[in-house]
Amino acid sequence: LAWAAALFFILLGPALIELIYDDRYIEAGWMLRILAFGPLVSVLGIAYDIVFITKGKTSALAALSLIQFVILITVIIVGNSLGDLRGMLIGLAAVPWLIFPAKAIFARRLNLFQPEVDLPVILGAFLIVIASFFVL
Length: 136
Prior knowledge:
This protein is mainly alpha-helical. It contains five helices and no strands. It is globular, with a radius of gyration of 16 Å.
């Protein structure tokens, strides 16, 4: 469902904003498209979070939350300095992509990592992001 929603906003986000709002909000269309790139990979991270909780590995979840916080602050600062609002939004959309390797490492340590599931999802997400820059 997250992929369906993300694809909807990637493909139709700008048109949806045009349809619903007046011209003052037209800029929200590209923002919606960029922010929709994050959930394409965050579905994997959320699945691992649930597994960590069910396995009682809340300390891993706490460590990952700290890592994600550091990533979030970093991408906001770097994104804003390199690309103003657009750079900051790209950075926010990239957070799930950047935290995933840490989640995969934690999952591997617990023998829970499933590359046969994760890698096709990441590849598909990557192809969608790349295609959206060329097609849309």
